[in-house]
Design brief:
Protein name: 3'-5' exonuclease domain-containing protein
Radius of gyration: 20 Å
GO molecular function: nucleic acid binding
Strand content: under 5%
Distance between the termini: 41 Å
Shape: elongated
InterPro entries: Exonuclease_MUT-7-like (IPR052408), RNaseH-like_sf (IPR012337), RNaseH_sf (IPR036397)
Order of helices and strands: HHHHHH
Number of helices: 6
Organism: Capsicum baccatum
Structural class: mainly alpha
Number of domains: 2
Largest sheet: none
Length: 130
């Protein structure tokens, strides 16, 4: 497969044109697996499940089951951090306290995560507090 074919599939996926991308793969197994990977990467698990069911794909990990099976102790805990100037904000109400704390600093780093939105013309998704 050429890089051009993969690039076109990626652009279609970024625009949310899943049906057009699926039509372009012509049931090519390698391209189909790449399309499923793109859907997984973008967080469209419904599309992943749909493609896997339609084409009887096996071997793709059910991410929901995987997330449920990961023990909580594998995540980094706040008390394990040795940096003293970290303000942990995990809810909207904690943002006010964090704002008071960081007002005295010239440089502030913020790490946020949210589900990407690849649909052209739609508003971006909001930051997830959870």
């Amino acid at each position: 497969m050429t890089v051009l074919v993969y690039s076109k599939l990626k652009k279609l996926a970024e625009k949310g044109c899943w049906d057009v991308a699926e039509a372009r793969i012509n049931e090519n197994r390698q391209l189909l697996e790449y399309l499923v990977y793109l859907a997984m990467e973008a967080g469209y698990m419904e599309k992943v499940e749909e493609l896997c069911e339609r084409y009887s794909l096996e071997g793709f990990i059910n991410v929901k089951e995987l997330e449920g099976s990961i023990p909580k102790h594998r995540y980094l805990q706040l008390d394990e951090l040795s940096i003293k100037e970290v303000v942990w904000v995990d809810e909207a109400n904690g943002l006010l306290d964090a704002t008071r704390h960081i007002e005295e600093y010239k440089v502030v780093g913020i790490d946020c995560e949210w589900k990407p939105n690849y649909e052209k013309g739609s508003s971006p998704n909001k930051v997830i507090f959870g």
